[in-house]
């Protein structure tokens, strides 16, 4: 559906300078692989944002570029085969989403350029030598920023100043980069007088155990977003609401599913910016020479409908700072 929408939209906009630009490209149009471990329903903004970024740069699907999309549907075991398939299809560049996609692409090829659309910890995961000088065949964007863990705890405190002195972090250690985000929270927690309880969840069989861990101390809760937790967002949000837990999420998908609030990088902006890396690589730039950029746009999303249903009064100062308030 996304590719069909993109073709229709871009076909209507191919005029003037854009048409001239298309004529300058070689007869054999480049192929871009798009690899993500989630499903398009769970992360609906990623692919459209990337396609919009391509369009802004003059790339028209089916005319001067072809985008080959592969979704993991939340199954990590599928990722190596999907990445290898893109390599076999001789794509010119692979755009990989999240640590699982990046690691699979990295294992599949050391020659095809890879653009990360939002890596958690590319240096810690061994994908690149450094952010400023990645080296090898990988570059792109990181969704990590030093202050994110502290900022989420601060927002929890503003929303629930009299809440528990414990924060339970629900996270999936199987996903590359997650540990860095978890450690970030652990380091920041003492600043807010908080102790951290780890609630690890790798698959649906572990959800109930993780929930029991969280319920035990009735803590504040912070849910880290990865393809698995996002796919289980309805169940997680329902659990949090049932136990009336003060909670904040990493991504807006949870808030749109009924969660109270989220704070994190604007993911759509990261995927849109990934298109500029693809453009530079198609023009001859070496990925290892392109510095990895960090997020520049962050969003606080608050679900006021959920707050009202739970009898929570959102501080006016917090509402005023929200980038979006769901009514």
Summarize this, please?
The protein is of the alpha/beta class and 327 residues long.
Describe the structure.
The protein has 327 residues and is α/β, with parallel strands linked by helices. It folds into two domains: 175 residues, Rossmann fold, CATH 3.40.50; 146 residues, Rossmann fold, CATH 3.40.50.2300. 41% of the residues lie in helices and 18% in strands. It contains 14 helices and twelve strands. It has a five-stranded parallel beta sheet, with helices on both faces. Helix 3 crosses helix 12 and helix 6 crosses helix 7. The longest helix is centred in the C-terminal third of the chain and has 16 residues. The two termini are 28 Å apart.
Total domain modules? 2
Q: Which stretches are poorly predicted, pLDDT < 50 over at least 5 residues?
A: 1-26
The level 1 CATH classification of the largest domain is: Alpha Beta
Radius of gyration: 20 Å
Q: What is the spatial order of strands in the main beta sheet?
A: 2-1-3-4-5
Helix- and strand-based class? alpha/beta
Q: H/E series, N to C?
A: HHEHEHEHEEHEHEHEHHEHEHEHHE
SS field, number of helical segments: 14
Q: What's the architecture of the largest domain in CATH terms?
A: 3-Layer(aba) Sandwich
Distance, first to last CA: 28 Å
Largest sheet: 5 strands, parallel
Q: Count all strands and give the number.
A: 12
CATH evolutionary superfamily of the largest domain: Response regulator
- Range of helix content: 40-55%
CATH fold descriptor of the largest domain: Rossmann fold
Principal-axis shape equals elongated
Mean pLDDT: 89
């Amino acid at each position: 559906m996304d590719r069909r929408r993109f073709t229709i939209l871009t076909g209507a906009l191919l005029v003037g300078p854009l048409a001239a630009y298309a004529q300058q490209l070689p007869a054999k149009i480049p192929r871009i692989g798009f690899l993500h471990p989630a499903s398009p329903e769970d992360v609906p903004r990623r692919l459209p944002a990337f396609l919009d970024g391509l369009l802004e740069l003059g790339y028209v699907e089916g005319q001067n570029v072809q985008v080959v999309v592969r979704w993991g549907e939340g199954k990590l075991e599928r990722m190596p085969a999907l990445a290898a398939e893109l390599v076999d299809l001789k794509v010119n560049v692979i755009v990989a989403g999240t640590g699982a996609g990046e690691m699979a692409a990295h294992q599949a090829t050391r020659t095809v350029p890879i653009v990360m659309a939002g890596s958690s910890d590319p240096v810690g995961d061994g994908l690149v030598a450094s952010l400023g000088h990645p080296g090898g065949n990988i570059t792109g964007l990181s969704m990590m920023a030093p202050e994110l863990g502290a900022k989420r705890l601060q927002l929890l405190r503003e929303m629930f100043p009299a809440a528990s002195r414990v924060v339970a972090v629900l996270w999936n250690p199987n996903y590359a980069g997650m540990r860095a985000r978890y450690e970030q929270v652990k380091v920041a927690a003492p600043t807010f007088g908080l102790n951290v309880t780890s609630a690890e969840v790798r698959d649906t069989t572990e959800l109930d155990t993780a929930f029991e861990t969280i319920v035990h101390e009735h803590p504040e809760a912070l849910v880290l977003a990865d393809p698995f937790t996002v796919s289980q967002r309805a169940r997680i949000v329902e659990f949090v609401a049932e136990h009336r837990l003060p909670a904040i999420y990493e991504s807006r998908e949870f808030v749109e599913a009924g969660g109270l609030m989220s704070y994190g990088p604007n993911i759509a902006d990261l995927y849109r910016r990934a298109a500029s890396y693809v453009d530079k690589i198609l023009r001859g730039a070496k990925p290892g020479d392109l510095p990895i950029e960090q997020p520049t746009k962050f969003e606080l999303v608050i679900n006021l409908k959920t707050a009202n249903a739970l009898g929570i009064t959102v501080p006016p100062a917090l509402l005023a700072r929200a980038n979006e308030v769901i009514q």
